[in-house]
Design goal:
four-stranded parallel sheet; alpha/beta; 291 residues; homotetramer
Chain lengths: 291, 291, 291, 291
């Protein structure tokens, strides 16, 4: 029942543990007026200030690598944090400059935003191999821009639950697909203004759901692409649930934990499904415009 | 306590396993602007690309038939998928052309949309016996249109939780009622734009709820009309929960699993409650208009 | 810790099982345009057509009385159902005429709506002793109108979780307070248009929560005022959960199940807390107007 | 893994049990039109009328102190309740005058609102040591205003999950950070108008989640800052769950329960992280304005 050509020898599934370090941009990209809300800003700053160090400790204890996606805006203001994460053996990856969704930009604006973040990472001196769109809101140009910059993978699209290739004018890139059901935002984000979520799920329920997903994905040869946010999962009981989840993955014995970069590297030359990335053509007036 | 005249010999309830293969139309029918959102489109394409094959494997393992409701737009673009499903012994049924709700169309527009889908199915060469309105949003004309096309059943209305007849100018049709509580959309759909849902329920909780519904329906002689979507239930842990649900139904021993068409056929000549299908007359100004 | 003067001899709490038979008015009072939505109308008609008979069977099996609150509009169209319920020994009570909230009416409009429902009940020939506002949205005039019509109780306000008296110009009435946490609407109502809810909770979780509430209320000497709706709780697994909840109440041994009328009668002459019912005076411009 | 310099000798964490006695201001601050809604007003009055006495009984039984944050508007109308709480050994603290969020006021308006509440507390004769912003919506001026009035702590910001200092022009104050995940509002608040919440979580699930948070916080040396509301947690089964939660805290043996004032006093002279409290500077046009 599985199409497991992509799996490492002996593996039934692969896990990537990823953290989007959105900090202030997680709310500023929703509404600049968020800057007037001191509590909301403090809520976001918990991520880099307390969440990241706490999660780094847990990752070190468990001896697993992770991938940290940084908006350029956040990396620019906290270069020491970026360096500390990289020095601990984790991957730093590209999460746009401003966290504003690419779907609300022109193609030129998206290119400028993308390049600006690349400049920030170059200034800090960390190598960048992959990209994730802010809010996963990739445009129809995004994979091409990723390829233009010589990055090897993207992690924003959801056509499959295992790696696939996306064809672009600049050659194919690897897609490492995330999914809403493996994101802590949908479980834990609660903030009335800007309204970024209204959920506070019991971490033990989230843990049970994600353990079951690991088990199901081992059956189908899938990629367990976990997307977490330090301002959310860095909270005490959620950090403990994260630790227990990784323990479950390690206990399985056949689910290697890889950085996105490491996984993308291993997939070079491997036969993967190939997808076009083209906007569907719509017959005029067939579908309504919500306006 | 049951009105079980409609039940097959020895059955306490009947189960229909249905899949609405909405693919892209699941979001385009909410807002044409969804076409600009590459991730959202990929999220929907997972349904036919990965979800349907995975679910077909599970159905084959369990040896149960299912009914797949296709919007004509989706069938037109994926005739091979339609044929593959039909060749596996499952029913293909009518789910409008565009998935735009009939309640937002004039009667003429609804008739044209309905006929256009019939043409698609005729071109592919699959027989069509029944219909389900997009979003279940049947109009006061819908049953009449179903009857005009010679189809024998509809599956959009909720007056009962067992089959009943709806009178139309073109003669009665059988209604096989669905319900919100037996739809995976309300459990699993999460997409911010177009905003089609904000729920990510643990599949094991959904499984527990639906198993209890099967058990309760055996007491009342009801129709367990399950409505699932491959872009949702095709995800790994949800597919496993679906498999376990069907296992529970089969273990009961007195809940036959039938296609909608097969069930409607068996009900020909059987005494069923008959309902009119007429818009309620409202006294002017008694109820407010939300505008 | 309890103020239990109101409790019947030997009782630790009292339970009232109430059903609001809103039928079509449950959605028409939100938006008259609901009449165009055939599925939504069918969804509401399930209440009187299937839900009420099913629940009457369960109540008869358990030998407990209930109170059925009818909007006059619904009673007018289904007098036989009203008579059947009354003939089974249950109470029929007043739930406005149109189910449109009193807070969106002038005082005169509310009086006319109230009187119109009284006329319907008089025509059918059922005695009326109490009232519940549509959506519990009592106005500052509502208790006075209840007293003017000679009714003895209202069940819309939430100042306490045990019976109390509300002073009105026409003399005090008894308030039998409901609460959002003991209403099935918040647990089970899901309908996108009119959007009356987005919840589909597992009935077994609702059952667990309400059993715990019964137990806690026995400690505090409270009134367990259950508000259910046949279009919701009449569904198979929910009806079974309702039956189990009543079983739990009966098993307690010290929680008598009374109709609202019976309870209000017993409270005549009993010392209860008395509350004024007066709109708070607001300093101009202190609080914002959402507009 | 902990930074536990702030913890009392032998303690792994500290718990503050706080109640925001919002009463009518909980809805009036959302919309003055709430005053027209008699049921909504009664829903809020349950807090001081029934909830507070019930919770005081539970606190007395458990022999633990709590902090009650009062909007000045509420204290002004219920001085006897304020005195009764203080006489029972609990702390009274400042929760703005009107409960209108400071982020919707000018700095001058916020100062006037703050001072007006101080006057109310002075008139009643209760000492005030700390402040919590309405809805936690502190402005960039709030800590300075707190310091200007000689108060020693604030409890509105979320940069850490242990006490820290916030620098202000008038000297540093102690921040005792709350969090959305430890507030009963997100679990229990349900009211359609004004729409202040749509959640009715099973109290036993809330209890399980908060017990796990206590346990996790003992590992990280955190402050368990519980924010509850008498109009919510004063309901029967929720009050019982609160009692069980405190029992869990006491059973731990290393989590002292302190008032906010007592904790802030103990932190005088203790080395704590220091944070600036400055609005982030935003590049023009980088982030969108939702308007």
């Amino acid at each position: 029942m599985t199409t497991s050509a992509w799996l490492p020898e002996g593996a039934s599934a692969v896990a990537c543990l990823t953290f989007d370090v959105d900090a202030e941009t997680g709310i500023l990209s929703a509404d600049a007026a968020a800057a007037d809300h001191a509590m909301a800003i403090s809520h976001q700053q918990f991520g880099p200030d307390v969440g990241v160090p706490r999660l780094l400790d847990i990752l070190a204890d468990l001896r697993v690598p992770a991938t940290f996606f940084f908006p350029g805006w956040v990396a620019e203001r906290r270069p020491a944090l970026v360096e500390r994460i990289a020095a601990a053996g984790h991957e730093i990856a590209h999460h746009s400059y401003s966290h504003v969704p690419a779907t609300s930009m022109t193609s030129d604006e998206e290119r400028r935003d993308f390049a600006r973040a690349m400049d920030v990472f170059a200034d800090i001196g960390v190598p960048i191999h992959g990209h994730r769109a802010g809010l996963w809101e990739a445009s129809w140009s995004t994979p091409a821009i990723v390829a233009e910059h010589g990055l090897t993978y993207d992690s924003s699209l959801m056509s499959r639950d295992a790696p696939y290739r996306v064809r672009t004018p600049g050659g194919p890139i690897v897609e490492l697909p995330p999914h809403w059901s493996l994101d802590d935002w949908e479980q834990y984000a609660f903030l009335p203004f800007p309204q970024i979520g209204q959920q506070i799920t019991n971490p033990s329920e989230v843990l049970a759901m994600w353990k079951a997903e690991v088990d199901a994905m081992r059956r189908f040869g899938s990629l367990f692409m976990l997307t977490n946010h330090p301002f959310l999962t860095g909270r005490a009981s959620r950090a403990v649930a994260f630790e227990q989840l990784v323990g479950h993955i390690l206990d399985a014995g056949d689910v290697p934990v890889l950085t996105c970069h490491d996984l993308a590297e291993r997939l070079a030359g491997v036969d993967l499904p190939e997808h076009d990335h083209v906007r569907p053509e719509l017959e005029p007036d067939l579908f309504p415009t919500a306006g």
